[in-house]
Amino acid sequence: MLENCQRHHMVLGLGLLTLVTIVVLIVESRYAADGLARRREQQFVIENNSTCWQNEPYTIIQECQPCSEFDIVSRSLGVCIHTHYKEVLRCKSGEIVTKSCDRVALIEQRNFIKFESIAFVIGVLSYLISYARDRFPSYSLDNSN
Q1: Which ranges constitute the DSSP H helices of the chain?
Q2: Using CA atoms, how far apart are residues 34 and 18, in angstroms rounded to an integer?
Q3: Where in this chain does the entry annotate a coiled-coil region (predicted)?
């Protein structure tokens, strides 16, 4: 069936599939992020039962990072039990709060974009090599004509 399709029809079809894939990924990531945020707000454990970061402005002292093995195993830091990640905040009132956080979504998104870019480059290089092999005749080293 593919051999009956013209080149511009195949390129148009691939372009439409790529566009649909990108739209689905964008929509899915937005809905997934909203749903996770709602569920995680209720699930996260907050050290010292402080919720000042929900009611007032805060600054991030320490970005979301993995808890140490000791904190997880010994349960010495309650926020590390559920997600194994912690974030340290300073509320405007001066209170310092350690709270659970989800793995940094930005890093995962960046890794996904890198993977897709590398896959695209490899695909283009494969196409160019295949095109060159098909376009240019190979000459035999054997001159036994």
Answers
A1: 7-43, 52-55, 69-74, 80-83, 105-135
A2: 25
A3: none
Largest Cα–Cα distance of the chain, in whole Å? 91
Query: Which residues are bridge partners to 15 per DSSP?
Result: none
Q: Which residues of 100-135 are buried (b: 16+ CB within 10 A; e: fewer)?
A: bbbeeeeeeeeeeeeeeeeeeeeeeeeeeeeeeeee
Model pLDDT for residues 19-70, shown as the tens digit of each residue? 988 888 888 877 766 655 555 444 444 455 567 878 888 898 888 888 888 8
Q: Where are the domains of the chain?
A: 1-43, 45-103, 104-134
Read off the pLDDT of residues 88-133 as tens digits, 9 standing for 90 and up: 888 888 888 888 887 766 677 788 899 999 999 999 999 999 888 8
Residue entry with tokens 């390129």: 11
Q: 45-103: which CATH topology?
A: 3.30.720
